[in-house]
Amino acid sequence: MSSDFESYEQDFAVLTAEITGKIGKVPKLVGDDKKQMVANVEKQLEEARELLEQMELEVREIPPQSRGMYSSRMRSYKQEMGKLEADFKRSRIAYSDEVRNELLGDDGNSSENQRAHLLDNTERLERSSRRLEAGYQIAVETEQIGQEMLENLSHDREKIQRARERLRETDANLGKSSRILTGMLRRIIQTGF
Asked: Which end of the chain, N or C, is less packed with Cβ atoms under 10 Å?
């Protein structure tokens, strides 16, 4: 099993060396050459990921007492893989006029076009800022109106509770009055008035 692992290790070392060399070339290329190199590196990175997966499967099959050494080597290879992927991302944009042009909106014309483009973007930002401020103001006003409505509802609730309490008291008083009148009526009937 460890011989398979070592074979994968050798393949990984060769592949990562090739990838490293190609990553160094990516920033210097332009157009189709760059696209082709990027596609090639992406393919090789995928192969390297698959090799790591195979190596990991091999490590799982190694007896636990021997596994520690291989596990630490795997961590190191994964770190190397992460570094390669990060370097690749950076290399795709480093020193790239293509990306710079996309970001700045430069199509190869004079700096006057750049200035006009930047002014246009500045105006858009200002308009967006004004819209955001207006939206914020509306949100604040809406919150104030909502707060006032909640206060009004609270006052109305208190009024309704007081009215309900008065109604209960009135109902209780009517009940007492009804009992008193009923008692008086009985006495009148008993005395034969």
From this structure: C
Under a CB-based contact definition with an 8 Å cutoff, are residues 55 and 77 in contact? yes
Two structure tokens written together for 54: 């195979």
Give per-residue pLDDT as tens, 125-148: 888 888 889 888 998 899 999 899
CB 84 within 8 A of CB 48: yes
Give the 3-state DSSP-derived string for 181-193, with helices as H, strands as E and coil as C. Answer: HHHHHHHHHHHCC
Residue type, 100: R
Q: Show the low-confidence residues of the chain (pLDDT under 50).
A: 95
* Helix pair 31-61, 2-25: axis angle to 10 deg: 160
- The share of the chain scoring above pLDDT 70, in percent, equals 89
Token code pair at residue 59:
């490590």
Coil, helix or strand for 53? helix
> Residue 95: its pLDDT value, please?
47
- Give per-residue pLDDT as tens, 27-37: 777 778 888 88
Distance (Å, whole) CA 59 – CA 30: 41
Contact indicator for 74, 59 with CB cutoff of 8 Å: yes
What distance lies between CA 1 and its chain's CA centroid? 43
Residue-level pLDDT at 98:
57
Looking at residue 15, its amino acid is L
Neighbour-count burial of 11, counting CB atoms closer than 10 A to its CB (0-12 exposed, 13-18 middle, 19+ buried): middle
